[in-house]
Design goal:
The structure holds two protein chains of two kinds. Chain A is of the alpha+beta class. Chain A has helices spanning 25-40, 83-101, 106-111, 113-123, 134-151; strands at residues 2-9, 14-19, 49-51, 62-68, 71-77, 124-125, 128-129. In chain A, helix 2 (83-101) crosses helix 4, helix 2 (83-101) packs parallel to helix 5 (134-151) and helix 4 crosses helix 5. Chain A is globular and about 45 Å long. Chain A starts with a strand and ends in an 11-residue tail after the last helix. In chain B, a hairpin with a 2-residue loop joins strand 4 (721-730) and strand 5 (733-742). The radius of gyration of chain B is 37 Å and the shape is globular. Classes of the chains: A alpha+beta, B alpha+beta. At the A-B interface, strand 2, helix 1, strand 3, helix 2 and helix 3 of A face helix 1, helix 3, helix 5, helix 7 and helix 10 of B.
Chain lengths: 162, 1019
């Protein structure tokens, strides 16, 4: 089971934090910080697995992470998950983000936090892997988008001036 | 077209985020956030009803603020209101807020559950999906209570859409994980199994995850999934990569599902032959594919392919039944060990760890030792090096222990701080476990302290002391080595502790050498004294008083040290007290009393290595225990624990080590076990179903042999079951406690242990027991008591047959029960001429046995010489004999001088005394055992038993109660005893001067004949 999914940038600023196990808010913050420090000191071309930090279960859990440009994607999993499988899953998630946002970048994650959450929800549900088929996920997102359009919000009138 | 239209943001949200990003300082950011929070709060509280869009915008802002690390304590109600909206986007953001900011307010939960219920019933698949997501993401007990009954129905309903089925399966899984008791098994389970045949691979994947978890607890219920999973797997593995279209990931067909299916199969033992053939084919295909050239250069391709491969290897290791596949797996992992991908090297090391415990592949794993050692030296990544350490630990056996320990030690010098302690523990365990030559063990541990002293935990140095105490062949060497190690200008405090202890006990063994004369030893230790912490200083003070006993020539030097102000007036109470008491002890006590008080430590009782326990605790129960158990099975206790000396042979049993001795020495007391009750059920000893009894378990003969001179321990152990024994024998009666431990997490059903006596044994040995509870819960232990009566002599041993159901399979285990004739032996008393008369009668050739054997340990002439020179009787035979007699005398005295001898107390007293002269912590232990009250009590109502008790207790009294109390106790004792008069046969003076020979002698059967001193001065 996946205990937590953390995305933060090279400076440790959280961009997406999702816990599937209850932790008090302050512990969540500590976990993000601890994980960042664990991951940061690792070179880019060494292995993608390391033992979980002290806060999130210690050696019973593994941190599996990938580093893309300015962002770290870290999944904290227990022993019931395949390490390489999770590594693939991170790739699926990122590729899906890329398809949905067209050349995704950190800013997309910041300004469309809700959308990122929805995409993640199509991939991981309650800590379990829901879907690994990228086309299926993108199709779901498109369907959501159409629904949104059809509901015809007032906000569609305000175009973002970012 | 992108699936997310970037333009459709919420303007207010974007502005807010930009503001935050433009903040120059943390303070400015907090200020901006507080402003926004106040704004949202007022909007939420305002009179004007907010429209859905505004609510959505504010909720999004709150989520963003939360992400930045600020607590959000409001907005839940607004989010809940959004749930009842008919607009998808509003509902969606409501659910998101609730899942991210879970709140346990019960009123809120009721509202949320209501909304979820409506959405589940809406038959709108999108809404149902949202609701199921929310349940899965929150996964609370309240939600399980509300929906655990409902979700299985949605899952197996014929008209449910695929995407909803997928979500429902995972949702159920989540609820089951969180509250398994709330998810009822039922008809739906068989229909869930059939989801493995579903057209939609997403549904199959979700169902496989669900079944894997459910099957771990209910294997019987889901066992039909095995054949379905195998055929599904076979279809995937043999399909061309294009067949599965969307589920093909970088040319690998449905890797995720394959992994899940292989995981599911690991919940079960190897399937029956028909299915097994097919599965073996699949596994072979997967192994073959690994050798094919890659279809893509992309790392994703090799990742996905290897994810499946590693899972296949895990399954092969789990089944542990096909030597052919195991060896192939091992070779494959061997290739990966040298792969350029760090991830693969990491995983290969990890998998090999489990492979090392299979007997088929253990040897094959060992061939990679050089690669692994190389990995330890050259890997840049600490994660990988850590795995290499684990693997070396797992592959270690007698043949390579020296090499592996040496490599680990040299790695330790540069190891990362985070893993040093673990390596230290591992080295200590391996060194002990595989030591052939204990001098090597001592060297290794001292090296360990030298290299990584800070990481050597208390357990490690306790253990080395235990081993040196228990193995007299290494004591001289240990003393010499530790003496040399202490010469180093800077040595670690742990070394001072070990050195202080060992020299205090065995310094005499090297004192013959002028280079390590008593004074030099003392000076060396004392030169470290001032650099040490209080506990170590306390230990050293104990060493000094031991020196007073061992080496009378340094007595004055030591007394001077003890008398110095820095000791007598030390600010630390413990140190001051020790100094006062030891000084007093050294001046008032005669050499004899000193020799008794400060006698060499008796062997420690056999027990589980404290280090192993620590490692287990550190690593969590799962990993190490499995490995340890596997290792134990493979190499049945290479060294075992140090052989216990007779005095502590039964230490594991309550009440105490001396219980057996009591039986030996005194007139036979009444049997402690109640006589076999007539109503006791005679467990089927006639056993006409002998055919159903399994042949004796392999290795049980060895275990049996170990029990000939031992009453307690583990009789049998496999992956499922552990059988432990505790037994006691008195005259012709005995009682045996058999403990059956279920090592799995699954219940044993129909658990029936049966005692079987062969025909001729039945007449001679009477066994009575009651049946045990037929179910043994996972992790539980049940106990069975067997009352034994020896009617006549016998040779065969009874057989214990255990039958039970574990999971789906029937288990049948037979072991010989170690009830042997010698357990009923009784000592007898006879005069010397009677004895020699009988002895001479034993002159038949068959009655004589002679055997010549090689010494197990090298005979070190230097050490022998040193021993002889000192004339100290540290020879084991004499040594333990002496102790035996002393124990007997004391206990006999206690037993015979009071009408109701509290033998237990006597035993405790003895064993505590033995332990008393030990480390600081033991002293503290003793302090809790002998509170002041005891002494006070003794003074108010004096009786002979307590006199003896006090006399024996004296050293600890003086050590724990302070000099004054001890002194007054002694005075009191002398007046009391003199008032008893000579008629009682108490030699008061003898008592007080501590001549043990002066212990009470009272007329009566079995009285001690001799009054001559049995304890000789050990100087």
């Amino acid at each position: 089971m996946i205990q937590a999914i953390l995305v933060f940038n090279n400076h440790g600023k959280p961009r997406l934090v999702r816990f599937y196990q209850r932790f008090p808010e302050e512990i969540q913050q500590q976990i993000v910080r601890e994980t960042f420090h664990l991951v940061l000191k690792r070179d880019d071309n060494i292995c993608n697995f390391l033992e979980g930090g002290s806060l999130i279960g210690g050696s019973d859990y593994k941190l599996i992470y990938r580093h893309y440009a300015t962002l770290y994607f870290v999944f904290c999993v227990d022993s019931s998950e395949s390490e390489l499988g999770i590594l693939d899953l991170i790739q699926v998630f990122v590729e899906t983000l890329d398809k949905c946002f067209e050349n995704v970048c950190e800013l997309d994650l910041i300004f469309h936090m809700d959308k990122v959450h929805y995409i993640l929800q199509e991939v991981v549900m309650g800590g379990m892997v829901l879907e690994t088929n990228m086309n299926e996920i993108v199709a779901q997102m498109e369907a959501q988008n159409r629904l949104e359009k059809s509901e015809n919000f007032p906000m569609t009138l305000h175009l973002s001036t970012r | 077209m992108p699936a997310v239209s970037k333009g459709d943001g919420m303007r207010g949200l974007a502005v807010f985020i930009s503001d935050i990003r433009n903040c120059k300082s943390k303070e400015a950011e907090i200020k901006r956030i507080n402003k926004e929070l106040a704004n949202i709060r007022s909007k939420f509280k305002g009179d004007k009803a907010l429209d859905g869009y505004s609510k959505k915008k504010y909720v999004c802002k709150l989520l963003f603020i939360f992400l930045l690390g600020h607590d959000i304590d409001f907005g839940h109600m607004e989010a809940v209101n959004l749930l009842s909206s008919n607009r998808y986007t509003e509902k969606q953001i409501g659910y998101l807020f609730i899942s991210v900011l879970v709140n346990s307010n019960s009123e809120l939960i009721r509202l949320i559950n209501n909304a979820i219920k409506n959405d589940l019933a809406s038959r709108n698949p999108t809404f149902m999906g949202l609701a199921l997501h929310c349940i899965a993401n929150v996964g609370s007990r309240e939600m399980a209570e509300a929906f655990a009954g409902e979700i299985p129905k949605i899952l197996v309903a014929g008209d449910t859409m695929d995407s909803v089925k997928q979500s429902a399966a995972l949702c159920l899984l989540r609820l089951y994980r969180a509250s398994p008791d709330l998810v009822p098994m039922g008809d739906w389970t068989s229909r869930v199994v059939h989801l493995l045949n579903d057209q939609h691979l997403g549904v199959v994947t979700a169902a496989t995850s669900l079944i894997t978890t459910l099957a771990q607890k209910n294997p019987e219920e889901f066992k039909t999934s095995v054949s379905l999973a195998v055929s599904r797997l076979s279809r995937i593995v043999t399909s061309a990569s294009t067949d599965l279209q969307d589920y093909t990931y970088y040319f690998v067909p449905a890797p995720w599902l394959s992994v899940k299916l292989l995981r599911l199969l690991q919940c079960y033992p190897p399937p029956d032959p028909a299915v097994r053939g097919r599965l073996t084919e699949c596994l072979e295909t997967i192994l073959n594919k690994a050798q094919e050239p890659p279809k893509s250069k992309k790392v994703q391709h090799s990742n996905a392919k290897n994810a499946v491969l590693f899972e296949a290897i895990s399954l092969i290791i789990h089944h542990d039944s096909e030597p052919n596949l195991l060896v192939r797996a091992c070779n494959q992992l061997g290739q990966f060990l040298q792969h350029r991908e760090t991830n693969l090297r990491y995983l290969a090391l990890e998998s090999m760890c489990t492979l090392a415990s299979s007997e088929f592949s253990h040897e094959a794993v060992k061939t990679h030792i050089d690669t692994v050692i190389n990995a330890l030296k050259t890997e840049r990544d600490v994660s990988v090096r850590q795995r290499a350490v684990d693997l070396l630990y797992a592959m270690c056996d007698r043949s390579n222990a020296q090499q592996i320990v040496a490599e680990m030690l040299s790695y330790l010098e540069t190891a990362d701080y985070s893993i040093r302690e673990e390596i230290v523990l591992k080295v200590a365990i391996l060194a002990e476990k595989y030591a052939v030559d204990y001098t090597w063990y001592v060297d290794t541990i001292l090296n360990l302290i030298r290299i990584a002293g800070d990481y050597v935990s208390e357990e490690v140095w306790y253990r080395v002391i235990q081993i040196v105490i228990n193995r007299d062949d290494v004591q001289g060497y240990a003393a010499k080595t530790v003496f040399e190690a202490l010469q180093a200008p800077a040595c670690h405090e742990n070394l001072v502790k070990v050195g202080g202890y060992i020299l205090g006990e065995f310094g005499n063994l090297i004192a013959g050498d002028p280079r390590s004369s008593p004074l030099i030893q003392f000076d060396l230790l004392h030169s470290k004294f001032h650099l040490c912490s209080v506990p170590t200083r306390a230990l050293l003070l104990s060493t000094y008083i031991k020196f007073v006993n061992l080496f009378p020539e340094v007595k004055t030097t030591i007394q001077d040290v003890l008398r110095s102000d820095s000791q007598l007036k030390n600010a630390d109470v413990e140190l001051q007290q020790r100094a006062v008491e030891y000084l007093r002890l050294s001046s008032v006590a005669s050499t004899d009393i000193l020799a008794t008080v400060l006698e060499e430590m008796p062997p420690f009782p056999e027990r589980e290595s404290s280090i192993l326990a620590k490692l287990k605790k550190k690593k969590g129960p799962s990993t190490v225990t499995d490995l340890e158990e596997a290792k134990r099975e493979r190499s049945v206790d290479v060294n075992g624990a140090p052989e216990p000396a007779p005095a502590s042979a039964s230490a594991a049993s309550t009440p105490s080590p001396s219980a057996d001795l009591l039986g030996l020495g005194a007139a036979p007391p009444a049997p402690t076990g109640p006589p076999p009750s007539a109503g006791g059920l005679l467990v089927d000893v006639f056993s006409d179903s002998a055919s159903a009894v399994a042949p004796l378990a392999p290795g049980s003969e060895d275990n049996f042999a170990r029990f000939v001179c031992k009453n307690n321990g583990v009789l049998f152990e496999n992956q499922l079951l552990q059988i432990g024994l505790k037994s006691e024998f008195r005259q012709n009666l005995g009682r045996m406690f058999i403990f059956y431990g279920n090592k799995t997490s699954t219940q044993f059903l129909n658990f029936t242990p049966t005692l079987i006596c062969a025909d001729d044994l039945q007449a001679n040995l009477n066994l009575q027991t009651k049946p045990v509870d037929p179910t043994v819960d996972g992790g539980a232990q049940v106990q069975q008591v067997v009352n034994i009566e020896c009617v006549s002599d016998f040779t065969e041993a009874p057989v214990l047959n255990i039958q039970f159901r574990y999971g789906g399979t029937f288990q049948n285990v037979s072991v010989k029960l170690p009830i042997t004739l010698n357990k009923f032996f009784q000592p007898t008393e006879m005069a010397s001429q009677d004895f020699f008369q009988r002895w001479k009668q034993l002159s038949n050739p068959q009655q004589e046995v002679q055997s010549i054997f090689k010494a197990k340990h090298p005979m070190d002439t230097e050490i022998t010489k040193a021993k002889l020179l000192l004339g100290r009787s540290s020879d084991l035979g004499q040594h333990s004999l002496k102790k035996l007699i002393l124990t007997l005398q004391t206990l006999w005295a206690l037993a015979s001088s009071t009408p109701k001898p509290p033998r237990l107390d006597a035993c405790c007293v003895w064993s505590r005394i033995c332990k008393l002269r030990c480390t600081g912590s033991r002293c503290a232990q003793a302090r809790t055992l002998f509170p002041r009250g005891y002494v006070t009590y003794c003074r108010s109502s004096f009786n002979p038993m307590q006199a003896v008790g006090l006399c024996v207790l004296f050293p600890c009294v003086s050590a724990t109660l302070g000099d004054h109390t001890a002194h007054s106790t002694m005075e009191h004792l002398s007046t009391c005893t003199s008032s008893l008069g000579p008629g009682r046969g108490w030699d008061t003076k003898g008592l007080l001067t501590g001549t043990t020979a002066g212990l009470p002698v009272q007329g009566g059967p079995g009285s001690m004949k001799s009054r001559q001193p049995v304890v000789q001065s050990t100087n």
